[in-house]
Every structure is written in structure tokens, then in C-alpha cells.
Amino acid sequence: MVCMMVEIDTSELRGKWFKCIDGCGLCCLCQPELLPLELKDFRGNPGLAGVVVRSDGDPARKSIAMLKNGGPCVMLKERKCTIYRERPHFCRQFPVHTHLMWRIQLTPDYSCRGIWREDWGDGKDGFVDLEKYGLDELHRYSGEKLEVELKDANEVFEEFRRNSIDNGVWREAGELRSKTASLIGDGFFSDLDGLGSILLAVQHAREDELDVFDILRATGKGQNRRESLNAMRELSEELLTVSRIEENPIYVDGSLNWNVYNLVNGKIWKRRLLDRGGLSNISQVELDISDISVSAEGERALTAYSIKSNSRDAFMGFVCYLVDDADYDIDLLSTYLENMAMTQLDLVMRSAIVQPERRRSIGREQVAEGVVYIDMDMHDAPTIGSVI
Ligand code: SF4
Ligand code: SF4
């Protein structure tokens, strides 16, 4: 049973539908961690004991092995899970993510093309209700372990809160979200001038110890597209220059190819991750970031994504993580607005990278593909709180 005293927020799942797409396998490119009971079952099964390895990044945890060279989980054959009925909770809950902090929040991962979206889909036949799906899996997982994880996550958040108050950088989540929502309403998060204005205001606020929101309210949106283009250039270098294959963000396209994008000798290459692991070059991507602009439809799609980020506890937890990591030298409000802006710019850039032939003006469809490319990374970002 899920602890009934705690709030469970499923609002982002409501009205969404889901059906896994045969031959996709995108979520099988993430290393699946095993819960203690699952580990016991795997170790007790002679056919499966050999696939258990230490998790990447956390040697105390155990996972199913991945193919070498950036390949998928070893249990995936011809893009089908060979242990589908016994697959672990980690796999079962996808495309729902569960974040624990002061409450439990379930959110959809829009990198999964199996999610039916009211604005994109054309029918509900054979789809499952995503809110029910997420809650059912949470109930399967719940019990003592969930209570312990929730208590731990709560304690970490409370410690962060105390440290933030002591260092004078604290803002309540409600205040962060409502101030951001008012800037979203004024279009700051959907065009390059607005996003550039936020980055400049954050810089100004930090240098002169002013309130970033007051600055933005006083100055409004300026002609600050150049600031956004510079930030996108830096973001693109970070995204496209990754040393290990398995650390590359993957974009699954409409034909279910697993694509990665890399900078090689100063040129962007579209490469394909092979089912057996390893990459093959597909084509060079002609993209000049200075050419990027966003259409009115694209701006509406960007606004929609900013509203989602602003409601996600995992995003809030990511910003808290950054403040903690900076030893509380940066404040919560400026860091929150800065990272909202950077997320939007990352989305614009990815929307242009995956469909460069239509890059002149990024529209709704391109932003939608950018969301497919970015959303898994947003869910995977470090966070104060925990993800189960
Ligand atoms: S990403 Fe979605 S559609 Fe693709 S395999 Fe996973 S659950 Fe299925
Ligand atoms: S256990 Fe199955 S569902 Fe989970 S990652 Fe491996 S192949 Fe995919």
C-alpha cells in the first residue's frame, strides 16, 4: 500500500494514454536497476544470475548488464524484451517517472513515442490510461521500501531547505512557480529575445545582488536574441561532444532508429546506435545556430513545455541540487529562472538539430521532436529528492 498521508501528484499524467510501440526499445538503452527482491529472483534463476552486474554510477546497486559499446540491455533481442513478464520495476514503470521529495510526483516521459497525446494522437484504441498505469505500478512497488525512500528524500530536502534559509537563498516552491508562471504568461520562455533577457537579468542580479524578478518586471523583454544564440552554441558543444558512447543522449525518430549527434572535426554528424552496440555515421548535419528562429506555432509549443518543466518536482530538485553544489553561493530564484531558460534553449537547439532541413523557422512539429530528444535527459538530471 502507498502511504496515504503523503500527497501523490499525478496531474501531468491525467488525460494521457500509452501503448508501447513494437520495435522501439528506446527505454532498453537505460541500465535497468533491480530492487532487492528482484535481485533475489534473478540470482536464484540459473538462466538469469549471469546478467546481474554492478550499476553504472552506483556500485552499491545491482542492474541487468548492458551490451558493450553503448548497446542496449542484454535481455533485448530483436528489439523485444526476452523476460517481458518478469522485467523489473525500473522497466515496468516506463514511461512514467516517480520522484520523491516533500511528496510523490508521477510524470510522463515524452521521449517515449508510445504516449498518446491529445494534441498529436488520432485515437485511444488499445492504449492504457497513463495515470492508472503509473499508480498501479507505484502500488506494486510500495510498502516498507517506499516509506523508507520517501522518508530519506524528505530528510534530504529538509536539510537543503535549512541550509538555503541559513544562507539567505531560500524561496518556497509555490513562489518560484508562480513568478515563473507569470513570466511564461508574458512570453519570456518562448522566444529567443525573452530567453536572452532572462539570462542577462540573472547575470545582472548576481553581480549587483538584486532580485532577478524585479529586474525583469522593470525592463521587460529586450532585443536579446544574441545572448540566446551564444548560450545555444555553448549548449551544443556540451551536447555533441561526449567521450563515451553510452553517455550520448539518444533521439528515437519516427522510424524507430536510435540516433545520436556528435561533433567530429568541427562538423555535426548524425550517427546511428546499432542494436549490437557501436555507432555508424549516417550523414553530416548542416546547421548554423545563428539561422535559428521560431514560428508563432513553435512559440506556443515552447510555452507548453515550459509549463511542464515549471510543474515538475524533478526540475525543482535539479535546481536545488545546483544551488547545493554551488555551496549556496547562488540563490534559488535566479538559478530556477536561469535553468528554465537554458532548458528552453536546449529544446530549441535540439529541435533544430533533429530536423535541420526545416530549421529556418522552428514550428510545432519540430518542437515536438525536440521534446522526444530532450525529455529523457530532463528526467535523468541529478536531483535533490530521489527517483524510483
Ligand atoms: S520508449 Fe516507450 S514505446 Fe519505446 S520501448 Fe519504451 S515504452 Fe515502448
Ligand atoms: S529487462 Fe527487458 S524491458 Fe527491461 S531494459 Fe532489459 S530488455 Fe528492456
Into which percent range does the helicity of residues fall?
Answer: 40-55%
State the shape: globular
Major sheet: arrangement of strands: 1-8-7-15
Q: Name every ligand kind in the structure.
A: iron/sulfur cluster
User: Major beta sheet, specifics?
Assistant: 4 strands, mixed
Assembly form of the protein: single chain
Span between termini: 16 Å
β-strand percent reads 5-15%
Taken in chain order, the helices and strands follow as EEHEEEEHEEEEHHHHHHEEEEHHHHE
Number of strands: 15
| Low-pLDDT sequence parts | none
What is the typical, i.e. mean, pLDDT? 92
How large is the radius of gyration?
21 Å
Structural class: alpha+beta
Briefly summarize what is shown.
With 388 residues, this protein is of the alpha+beta class. The protein is 44% helix and 15% strand.
Protein described:
Strands 1-8-7-15 form a four-stranded mixed β-sheet. α9 packs across α11. It is an alpha+beta fold and 388 residues long. It is built from twelve helices and 15 strands. Bound molecules: iron/sulfur cluster (2 copies). One iron/sulfur cluster (SF4) binds next to loops.
